Amino acid sequence: MLLVTHHALLVTTKLIEERYNFVNYDIKDISLAEQGRFRMQWAAREMPVLNLIEERFAKDRPLEGLRLSACLHVTAETGNLMRVLQTGGADVVLTASNPLSTQDDVAAALVAHNEMSVFAIKGEDNDTYYRHLHAALDFKPNMTMDDGCDLLATLHSERADLLEYIIGGTEETTTGVIRLKAMAKDGALKYPVIAVNDAMTKHLFDNRYGTGQSTLDGIIRATNILLAGKTFVVGGYGWCSRGIAMRAKGLGANVVVTEIDPLKALEAVMDGFRVMPLLEAAPIGDLFCTATGDIHVFDQPHFEAMKDGAIMANSGHFNVEINIPALEGMSTEWRRVRHQLDEYVLNDGRRLYLAGEGRLVNLAAAEGHPASVMDMSFANQAMSAVYMRTHAHELANEVYSVPEAQDQEIARMKLSAMGVAIDVLTPEQENYLASWTEGT
Predict the structure, then answer these.
(1) What residues have CB less than 8 Å from 314, skipping those under 6 apart?
(2) What would the pLDDT profile of 298-343 be if each residue is shown by its tens digit?
(3) Which of 381, 368, 316 is nearest to 101 (CA)?
(4) Are 387 and 410 in contact (CB under 8 A)?
(5) Which of 48, 269, 359, 365 has a CA positioned 20 to 30 A from the CA of residue 185?
């Protein structure tokens, strides 16, 4: 049976290569397509809201004729989003939003089974990464879909001649929204963008529960260490860092939070965490993880204070939160000791460890967010693409929030899929809430 299956795979691979040689793509291995298809099907079982949207898209075709270039983490969940956008009528090109976040079998499945142009290889170098961004822009898209704003930034800075084709875009993550708002403030943003990250059904769930679970998954896969009893230092207390702190505490770690915002620091204290400056936490931490969206959160003074054997990871979008050049400059030796775990031997003999090359550890060393939480995030992406397609002509070159009605609808759909019912206000209650005359 195994021999027959292997033979069938070889035949399928040959047919794929012959049939789809006209599709423009750059991936690792087309023969991984069946494996990727199974992975996408498994994820789809946990994405009921997106599946309902696909049914609607198949009937209405709201994206008919739209050319859409997406720069996202190429995972099974993203693959299902791309499939739904195609079902809605869009002509889609996909490129990776991080050199280490691609699932190569999913990339192959999208080329082979969806005839989609995909430019993504896990472990690609920076030159290849940007070459892939340009390949996605060569498509002359009408809409961009970003995770980190690299595609939009490249379009504005290097391919401005293509701006005439663009009606709008969407952005998936906190880091990208920060960049977009800076562009809008400077008057540099040339088309409207919906900040999908800021939807309640995105950041309250994806950032907290998705990042919390998947970050710890990545750290454990990279290190295979027991978290119980360890001192775990979390940089920041935004939604992503809250999820990391929560899950680390749940696994028995002694969690320390570092912050610059007094309100978030106060919240962390009242959530039961120790809060202190990072320089005070550096000598006592066993593990360090940052998810702030800022640069050099862990820097040379912190490395100098860390104990022998300390492990660092990053769950922010870019690999700048840990000052890797400074770490390399302090080191006499470097080696890869486990898959996605590097050892740096410092001048004084101490050993510090870096997971996932300082990139998103949940995708570099694991599989990213669980499909169930990405269900809401990607439902927002799909519906935001329709909203932008419909309303772009009314919008200025600004960053827009997801419409509240859309947020509410996705939450209702998710609850329904989970078999959860909620109450509704009576007419009397609605009148009371709308009135100012009622009192004691």
Answers:
(1) 289, 290, 291, 321, 322, 356, 358, 359, 360, 361
(2) 999 999 999 999 999 999 999 999 999 999 999 999 999 999 999 9
(3) 368
(4) no
(5) 359
